[in-house]
């Protein structure tokens, strides 16, 4: 009943609306009476604009990230440790025979000196500090703790003053040191060593008839160098021969002073490069 009533009420309104719409709409010509030029399709053209493209606005994280970089930068620079050389480093450079080559932004540090007619080059890198293996450090510290416990058991009857004198030093990290000694017309001697706990530990001694192979600064030289005999491990040599080689290097400044300097300078340079890295990224991310 409701549907029939709805239908009868809607039909007159629909009919009257259609009639009114037809009456109000102007009479259109059929396509037969349209001019020929209107029947032709209009060509379409690609939109073209001479205005500059609009770039994306800065990301939502940019400001926050730049502020975090600034926060870290302030924390690292407030102590002023990156500005002045440590006393131990300054003393070595002022009183030692080496000239230092340290380029900002590079990992490698080079020391050079003359010894008679020899040109001596010592290089090391801050990458050794960044590549420290936490697992090895943990193992070293665990072994150190065990040794200290054994020592404390054996020293129960020793006076506190004597215990202070016999406390073992904390082991330092290994810093690789490459030494090249070049003589005019005689090639070069290359030494692979590590500096740790104030000592230079030699691992290998090599000879190159072509001095440029000792440093191998190009891929071609490195490839040529790899095919040459590098000599036996240093520890396999006769003990007297080992001692004489160590004395030979010691006379040229490859000694305990250098072994103490290298880790100290690595710490200083790594901190300075980290501060530079923070500043560069802050400037890149920020809008200023």
Automatic annotation (TrEMBL):
Q: Name one GO cellular component term.
A: mitochondrial matrix
GO terms (BP aspect): cytosolic ribosome assembly
Q: Which residues cross the membrane?
A: none
For bias type Basic and acidic residues, the affected ranges are 150-159
* InterPro entries for this protein: MAM33, MAM33_sf
Disordered: region residues: 148-171
* Superkingdom of origin organism: Eukaryota
Please give the Pfam families that the UniProt record associates with this protein. MAM33
Know the name of this protein?
Mitochondrial glycoprotein
Species this protein is from: Trichophyton interdigitale (strain MR816)
């Amino acid at each position: 009943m409701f549907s029939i009533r709805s239908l009868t009420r809607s039909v007159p309104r629909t009919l009257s609306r259609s009639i009114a719409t037809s009456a109000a709409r102007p009479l259109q010509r059929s396509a037969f009476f349209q001019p020929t030029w209107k029947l032709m399709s209009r060509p379409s053209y690609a939109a073209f604009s001479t205005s500059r493209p609009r770039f994306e606005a800065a990301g939502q994280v940019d400001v926050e990230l730049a502020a975090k970089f600034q926060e870290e930068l302030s924390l690292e620079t407030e102590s002023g440790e990156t500005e002045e050389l440590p006393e131990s480093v300054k003393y070595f450079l002022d009183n030692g025979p080496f000239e230092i080559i340290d380029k900002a932004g590079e990992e490698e540090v080079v020391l050079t000196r003359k010894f008679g007619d020899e040109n001596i080059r010592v290089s090391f890198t801050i990458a050794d500090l960044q590549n420290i293996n936490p697992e090895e450090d943990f193992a070293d510290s665990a072994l150190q703790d065990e040794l200290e416990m054994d020592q404390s058991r054996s020293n129960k009857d020793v006076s506190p003053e004597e215990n202070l004198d016999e406390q073992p030093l904390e082991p330092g990290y290994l810093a690789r040191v490459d030494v090249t000694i070049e003589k005019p017309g005689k090639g070069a001697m290359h030494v692979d060593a590590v500096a740790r706990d104030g000592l230079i530990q030699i691992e290998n001694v090599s000879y190159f008839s072509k001095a440029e192979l000792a440093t191998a600064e190009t891929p071609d030289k490195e490839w040529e160098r790899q095919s040459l005999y590098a000599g036996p491990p240093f520890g396999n040599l006769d003990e007297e021969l080992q001692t004489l080689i160590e004395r030979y290097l010691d006379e040229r400044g490859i000694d305990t002073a250098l072994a103490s300097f290298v880790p100290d300078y690595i710490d200083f340079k790594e901190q300075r490069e980290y501060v530079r890295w923070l500043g560069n990224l802050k400037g890149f991310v920020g809008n200023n």
